[in-house]
Amino acid sequence: MPVMHQAPHPDTAEITLIPVMAALSDPIRIGLVRTLSDCRERGWGELRAPVAKSTLSHHLRVLRDAGITRTRQEGTRCYVTLRRDDLERRFPGLLNAVLAAADIDHVGRHVGLGTGNGG
């Protein structure tokens, strides 16, 4: 059985403010965070955004590299979850403030869930 490469994730203590804020500076990424804010694991194929799949993959990698999400690979499928607890430990209240502001301004509302195959 082939070994699947698991993407690197920063430990909670390694999550820093500048990469988090940079990752949250894009409407697509804010929409992804809003979509994942229920803390349920989602297959990449479930996520819908008005960008090419390669661009969506880029946005998911930026979120992962910043420590905002965790990606898990299972076979050929990838699943993503929001690291809400880790972000709350590092920056209390930040994620809730960003999500509330995004909701008020309708940032990322064009990103959501589809009926994809889960990965």
TrEMBL record:
Name its species. Answer: Amycolatopsis lurida NRRL 2430
One Pfam annotation reads HTH_5
Output the InterPro entries linked to this UniProt entry. Answer: ArsR-like_HTH (IPR011991), HTH_ArsR_DNA-bd_dom (IPR001845), HTH_MetalResp_TranReg (IPR051081), WH-like_DNA-bd_sf (IPR036388), WH_DNA-bd_sf (IPR036390)
Ranges of residues in domain HTH arsR-type: 9-102
Keywords, ordered alphabetically: DNA-binding, Transcription, Transcription regulation
Q: Can you tell which superkingdom this protein's organism belongs to?
A: Bacteria
GO MF terms held by the record: DNA binding; DNA-binding transcription factor activity
Annotated Gene3D superfamilies: Winged helix-like DNA-binding domain superfamily/Winged helix DNA-binding domain
PANTHER family according to UniProt:
TRANSCRIPTIONAL REGULATOR, ARSR FAMILY, TRANSCRIPTIONAL REGULATORY PROTEIN
What lineage is this protein's organism placed in?
Answer: Bacteria, Bacillati, Actinomycetota, Actinomycetes, Pseudonocardiales
Q: Which SMART domains match?
A: HTH_ARSR (SM00418)
The protein here is known as Regulatory protein
